[in-house]
Design goal:
The protein is an alpha+beta fold and 173 residues long. It contains four helices and five strands. It has a five-stranded antiparallel beta sheet with strand order 1-2-3-5-4, covered by helices on one side. The N and C termini lie far apart (89 Å).
Length: 173
Amino acid sequence: MVTIDSPREYTLSLQATPARVPQVRRIVAAHLRHWRLEGIIQPVSLGVCELLTNVHRHTKGDQRCVLELRWARGQLTASVADNDPRLPRLQGPRPFAERGRGLALIAHLSDSWGTHTIPDGKVVWFTLAAQPQALRPLRPLPPTPTLATTATVPRFETRPHVERADAPCLSDA
C-alpha cells in the first residue's frame, strides 16, 4: 500500500511537438490529481509546457526529450532533459516581446529552478513545495430535486369580463 508520504515518480519520453504539448499538460494534471497535489496543477502544467515549448523552439534537429516528475518530502520537481547541450539563459524584461519570457515565467511560478549539463545534452528543472490533500471520507448526498418536486404551475387570476360601452369596436375602425 502506498502511503500519503511515499515518494512518487513519473517519466515520459516524447517528441516536443506543438500537438504533443497540450496532451502532456493533461497527463501532468492527471498525475498530480492522482498524487493528490491538486493545488499545484496550474503552475506545474504551465511550467512543463514552457519547458517543452523551449525544446521545440530551440533544439536543433532532434526534439526528443524526457519529462520527469518527482515528488518527495513535500517538494515536487519537474524536469525536461533534451539532446541539445546549449543551456538556456534567463533574459531581462522585454514587455512587448512575443517570445523569450518562458524562463522568467518559470522563475516566477516556482520555488527554485535551474539547469545542468548531462553527457548527451542538458536538463532544465523547477521545484514547488506541495503537500497532498487529505482524503475526505465519502458521504451520501441528498437526492437531487426532480422537476416534479420543484416545479409549480403558474396560476392566472381570472376576472369577470365587463363590457364597456365606450370601448371602440374593431369593426368600427
